[in-house]
Amino acid sequence: MNTTELIEKLPKAELHLHIEGSFEPELMFEIANRNNVEIPYKSVEEIRKAYNFHNLQSFLDIYYAGASVLIHEKDFYDLTYAYLLKCHEDRVVHTEIFFDPQTHTDRGVAFETVFNGIKKALDDGEKKLGITSQIIMCFLRHLSQEEAFKTLEASLPFKDGIIGVGLDSSEVGHPPSKFQQVFEKAKEYGYITVAHAGEEGPPEYIWEALNLLGVKRIDHGVRSLEDKALMELIIKERIPLTVCPLSNLKLCVVKDLKDHNFKEMLDQGVCVTINSDDPAYFGGYMNQNYTETAEALSLSGEDIVKVAINSFEASFIEDELKEKWINECRSMLT
Ligand code: HPA
Ligand code: ZN
User: Fold this and answer.
1) What is the pLDDT averaged over residues 94-121?
2) With 266 labelled, which of 30, 73, 289, 319 sits at a CA distance of 20 to 30 A?
3) pLDDT in tens, 234-245
4) Is 199 tagged catalytic?
């Protein structure tokens, strides 16, 4: 089996996906039109042309602007279901998606509108496409901890449908320590915690996410390699990193995919996974991320299977299902 075929056939879990980042320009146009919202682009091509980023912030500005056309429950449903169809094409059998409540509640869209639209689509995705899923709600780190507390409280009626909390948006200058108390409270409510750290920010932010926020996974974490003691810890404790290679390329975290440290971390025994982050903006969904990474870093078939196994190991699904998928991944090598 060649690499492309192997990637297409392998069952995979996606663990780092912002649902607002799966908003394709075609759907953005359609929803903007039906909601009578003006967007500053005349065509789908013009939107795509604007997707030239030089760092995280230059992307976030456009990403938040795009999300502002989402108003009704159906908008969130359509957005989420469109993503699930991509999962189905790519043999992503389980996905743990992020959403950013504050991006919507700050514009007057109710938490429940956002949540219900996403959740109904995920339920339909399980029924019709057989894709299992979880929802993780992220706090925007450029906003205050007090704002995050309000979001945490707003989530409580929907707690049964949300597995955990995360931390995203502008990293540098907004360390995990800024959110220590709200993460503490979230854990008291029974939420699992994860956080973006070490995408642009230093290894100290990864330490803080682990020691102060008690995270079970690090989102990105590509700067871990700069700190030997940190590497030892994440290898020994098998703390997963949800790496997003095409995102790293588009946001200039790496100049060339060939320079990416993914293979080095994999070889050192880190539980690294491959994910798409914001696929509508960064040029590809899961299989594109797998394929381009495999090509750039000369990943072997065994490497690729190991990464897919890592994705299930690092997921929050029950052990029995984990084992079933891991066995299926293993069988691809025989
Ligand atoms: N990093 C931080 N915040 C984000 C990202 C990201 O890659 N995508 C969407 N919000
Ligand atoms: Zn992300």
Assistant:
1) 98
2) 319
3) 999 999 999 999
4) yes
Asked if the model's pLDDT at residue 251 lies above 90, the reply is: yes
The residue extents of the domains of the chain are 10-331
**pLDDT tens-digit map of 193-243:** 999 999 999 999 999 999 999 999 999 999 999 999 999 999 999 999 999
C-alpha span between 256 and 61 (Å, rounded): 23
The ligand whose atoms approach the alpha carbon of 280 most closely is 1
Of 199, 200, 208, 292, the active-site residue reads 199
CATH topology of domain 10-331: TIM Barrel (3.20.20)
Contact 12, 92 (CB under 8 A): yes
DSSP 160-205: GG--EEEEES--TT--GGGGHHHHHHHHHTT-EEEEEESSSS-HHH
What confidence tens digit (pLDDT) does each residue in 34-79 have? 999 999 899 999 999 999 999 999 999 999 999 999 999 999 999 9
Of the candidates 228, 297, 284, which has an alpha carbon nearest to the alpha carbon of residue 257?
A: 297
pTM: 0.98
Name every protein residue with a CB atom under 6 angstroms from any ligand 1 atom: 18, 21, 56, 63, 168-169, 196, 199, 247, 277-278
> Which ligand 1 atom sits closest to the C-alpha of 220?
7
Extract the tokens encoding 253. Answer: 């975290």
Q: Which of 277, 305, 269 is nearest to 220 (CA)?
A: 277
Residue 334 pLDDT greater than 90, yes or no: no
Decide if pLDDT at 291 tops 90.
yes
Tokens of 246: 């095409």
What is the atom index within ligand 1 of the atom nearest the CA of 247? 7
